[in-house]
Specification:
It is found in: Cytoplasm, Cytoskeleton. The chain is mainly beta. It contains no helices and 24 strands. Strand 22 and strand 23 form a beta hairpin.
Length: 174
């Protein structure tokens, strides 16, 4: 997947010393509990809920417009407990997503209008297609593509190495 160039108005974004770009129109609740490791972009109208638990985002991530990132929770007899959310490097979250996962690996692409259920684990190098709803506690294996409502395994991505170049083919699982 080739990412397109995104142009922005510098006056609408705050740039940190580590190269993070955060929209002035986004909401970061509990900012002392949010760690952006560098060169991460948070676009307008996004909400990151650091007031519930720690949120850690890796390098070179993009969170597009109107997405909500919040830590997962678990109900107990005495109340509710929130757990930290870890997002790896090179993660791309499209518009209008709700992410309530426990962990997202590196090189993950989450499509438009997706809902990632509570305590889901997305391993490295996976893709969630547009309009997918992952049920709570779903584990997405590496090199897989999930789609649907509820989200299920669509196909696996095979990566072949030959002569120093990578090419990928898809195996459909029916």
């Amino acid at each position: 997947m080739e990412l397109s160039e995104i142009l922005y108005n510098k006056a609408e974004y705050i740039e940190t010393a580590s190269g993070n770009k955060v929209s002035r129109q986004s909401v970061l609740c509990g900012s002392q509990n949010i760690v952006l490791n560098g060169k991460t972009i948070v676009m307008n109208d996004c909400i990151i809920r650091g007031d519930l638990a720690n949120v850690r985002v890796g390098r070179h991530c993009v969170v597009k417009s109107r997405s909500v990132i919040r830590p997962p929770f678990k109900k107990f007899s005495k109340g509710v407990a929130f757990f930290p959310l870890h997002i790896g490097d090179h993660v791309f979250i499209e518009e209008d997503c709700v992410v309530n996962a426990a962990q997202i690996g590196s090189y993950v692409h989450i499509g438009k209008n997706c809902v990632i259920g509570r305590r889901c684990v997305l391993k490295d190098c996976c893709k969630i297609l547009d309009n997918t709803v992952l049920p709570p506690e779903t584990v997405v294996p590496p090199f897989t593509v999930f789609s649907g409502c509820p989200g299920c395994w669509l196909y696996i991505i095979h990566v072949h190495r030959s002569l120093g170049q990578q090419s990928s083919t898809h195996s459909l699982l029916f």
